């Protein structure tokens, strides 16, 4: 291959890369509305309105180091263990999970666990979805 | 009475009493299991589907797999354990087997086998936790082109080792998180007759016994600031040093700095690593260049990357990455490198979440080497197609 052919091929490759850049930027701008919805998480619209803010905290903090599939598919239903689990994650370096964040995260996980149990065992009554009921959920936040 | 064995016995007894009186065991043991498997197909463009007579030793092309299985056990609020086994290039390996003893958020003692705290990529090294098939060049472990000439990255990840780590985290209010870690581990190895670089294959070989009995030491500090509900930034610095030959003569020092900014699903990561490496210069005939009488017994390997990850749609993310390495110093006479070699790579990749536990990845890479290969090529193109599943 002559040097001029090599340069030509490199030029074509770079042009393709620039086209891809433009396409990606356009898609990114078009997809701005979806940037808060995490790809491996839940669709916020399917959650009770009063839980969406809690879910947003969970999704933002817990997707920093790993996929949301990890906690959502962990199969944990015991609240005490969720409390230990979140405390362990909160202590991870650079987690960005403060004490203030632990409450909303555990509130969402409490709802999610009950929802999963309800799906798996029809005998379990559906979780309460009113804000007052959720806020009274017996959550234990580990320091 | 003052023999090392007696002192070790008293230390063991004191540790036992400390642990049993400080930490209350829980009545029930809670545990979770998790795992991941990534299959990746790597096509090295200039090489195509054929292999030269020398085989495919300079690039892992074709299919590769990385699989792992992890169990985490919370014995109590103060004691947890993690075990993780991996299957990959080095066969079956223990990536984690450690206990965490925690007296407070600011005081956690980790003992066993673990990847010591270094850099920001460390916590994301599992293929399920990063959205490209391969790692940034400074952390590359076998997927880069010309991997043998370069002996992989600056600090190929993961780098599990046996030892002890003291770490902690402290929040200043609700906005700033400070992390620290200090550790002592066996360190990297090369048991060869004339060691000229770290032997990463040997460092991963079981049985995990050090070749020189002198531990390596290291530290990391990082600060994370919450910039609102949906944004945070982390800045960190890391360092480790030790000897790698069996005579304890040859040292290595690895330092690094990292910065990341995350706003919703968009993340920018910047990281720089440097390894200063001494080598055995007792046989000048092994080297390409004359050995300088002063400071001629080391090389420096720099590596850096900048990465932008952002959503294109709910299930689709794009990743842009530019990374590079620069090596300066003497090289073996047989090496393709010179005393000032560089490699630059530009990557564009897509990650599609097919469903919660399955992600497809593809990426294209443009490489630029400072040194031509046997056919005079300095520019190369490669591509990855991969799938990673988690449970």
Q: Let me know the largest β-sheet of chain B.
A: 16 strands, antiparallel, barrel
Mean pLDDT of chain A: 73
Radius of gyration of chain A: 22 Å
- In N-to-C order, the SSE pattern of chain B is HEEEEEHEEHEEEEEEEEE
End-to-end separation of chain A in angstroms reads 66 Å
Largest contact between chains: A-B, 52 and 59 residues
Residues in helix, % of chain A: 55-70%
What percent of the residues of chain B sit in helical stretches (DSSP H or I)?
A: under 10%
Structure report:
The complex is a heterodimer of chains A (143) and B (391). Chain A contains 6 helices and no strands. Chain A is mostly helical. In chain A, helix 2 (52-62) packs across helix 5 (99-120). Chain B is globular, with a radius of gyration of 22 Å. Chain B has a 16-stranded antiparallel β-barrel. Chain B has helices spanning 4-22, 147-150, 200-203; strands at 30-44, 62-74, 79-88, 91-104, 107-114, 161-172, 176-185, 216-226, 231-243, 251-263, 266-278, 298-313, 316-329, 340-355, 358-369, 379-390. Chain B is mainly beta and 391 residues long. Residues 24-28 of chain B have low confidence and may be disordered. Chain B has 3 helices and 16 strands. The chains are: A mainly alpha (143), B mainly beta (391).
What does the secondary structure layout of this molecule look like, with pairings?
The complex is a heterodimer of chains A (143) and B (391).
Chain A: H1 3-30, H2 52-62, H3 69-72, H4 79-90, H5 99-120, H6 131-135
Helix pairs in contact in A: 2-5, 4-5
Chain B: H1 4-22, E1 30-44, E2 62-74, E3 79-88, E4 91-104, E5 107-114, H2 147-150, E6 161-172, E7 176-185, H3 200-203, E8 216-226, E9 231-243, E10 251-263, E11 266-278, E12 298-313, E13 316-329, E14 340-355, E15 358-369, E16 379-390
Antiparallel strand pairs in B: 1-2, 1-16, 2-3, 3-4, 4-5, 5-6, 6-7, 7-8, 8-9, 9-10, 10-11, 11-12, 12-13, 13-14, 14-15, 15-16
């Amino acid at each position: 291959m002559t040097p001029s052919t090599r340069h030509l091929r490199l030029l074509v490759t770079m042009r393709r890369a620039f086209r891809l850049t433009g396409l990606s930027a356009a898609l990114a701008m078009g997809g701005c509305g979806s940037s808060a919805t995490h790809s491996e998480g839940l669709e916020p619209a399917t959650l009770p309105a009063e839980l969406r803010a809690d879910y947003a905290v969970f999704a933002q903090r817990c997707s920093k180091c790993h996929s949301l599939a990890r906690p959502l598919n962990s199969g944990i239903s015991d609240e005490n263990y969720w409390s230990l689990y979140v405390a362990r994650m909160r202590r991870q370096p650079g987690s960005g999970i403060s004490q203030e964040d632990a409450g909303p995260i555990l509130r969402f996980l409490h709802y999610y666990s009950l929802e999963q149990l309800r799906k798996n065992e029809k005998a379990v009554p559906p979780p309460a979805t009113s804000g007052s009921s959720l806020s009274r959920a017996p959550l234990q936040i580990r320091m | 009475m003052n023999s090392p064995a007696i002192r070790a016995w008293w230390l063991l007894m004191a540790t036992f009493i400390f642990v049993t009186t400080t930490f209350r065991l829980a009545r029930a043991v809670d545990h979770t299991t998790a795992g991941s498997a990534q299959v990746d197909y790597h096509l090295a463009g200039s090489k195509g589907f054929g292999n030269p007579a020398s085989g495919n030793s300079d690039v892992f092309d074709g299919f590769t797999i990385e699989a792992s299985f992890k169990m985490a056990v919370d014995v109590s609020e103060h004691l947890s354990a993690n075990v993780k086994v991996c299957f990959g290039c080095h066969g079956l390996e223990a990536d984690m087997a450690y206990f965490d003893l925690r007296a407070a958020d600011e005081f956690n003692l980790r003992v066993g086998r673990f990847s010591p705290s270094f850099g920001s990529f460390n916590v994301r090294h599992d293929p399920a936790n990063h959205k490209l098939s391969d790692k940034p060049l400074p952390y590359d472990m076998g997927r880069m082109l010309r991997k043998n000439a370069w002996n992989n990255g600056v600090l190929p990840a993961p780098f599990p080792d046996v030892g002890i780590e003291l770490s902690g985290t402290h929040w200043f209010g609700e906005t700033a998180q400070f992390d620290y870690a200090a550790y002592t581990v066996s360190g990297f190895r090369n048991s060869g007759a004339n060691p000229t670089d770290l032997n990463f294959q040997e460092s991963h070989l079981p049985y995990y016994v050090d070749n020189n009995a002198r531990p390596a030491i290291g530290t990391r500090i990082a600060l994370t600031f919450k910039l609102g509900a949906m944004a945070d930034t982390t800045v960190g610095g890391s360092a480790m040093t030790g000897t790698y030959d069996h005579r304890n003569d040859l040292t290595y020092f690895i330092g690094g700095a990292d910065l990341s900014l995350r706003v919703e699903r968009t993340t920018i990561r910047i990281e720089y690593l440097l390894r200063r490496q001494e080598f055995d210069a007792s046989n000048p005939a092994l080297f390409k260049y004359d050995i300088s009488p002063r400071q001629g017994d080391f090389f420096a390997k720099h590596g850096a990357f900048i990465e932008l990850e952002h959503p294109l749609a709910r299930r689709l993310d794009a990743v842009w990455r530019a990374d590079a390495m620069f090596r300066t110093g003497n090289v073996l006479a047989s090496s393709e490198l010179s005393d000032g070699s560089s490699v630059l790579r530009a990557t564009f990749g897509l990650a599609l979440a097919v469903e919660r536990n399955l992600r497809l990845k593809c990426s294209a890479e443009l490489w630029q080497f400072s040194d031509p290969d046997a056919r005079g090529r300095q520019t190369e193109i490669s591509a990855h197609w991969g799938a990673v599943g988690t449970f």
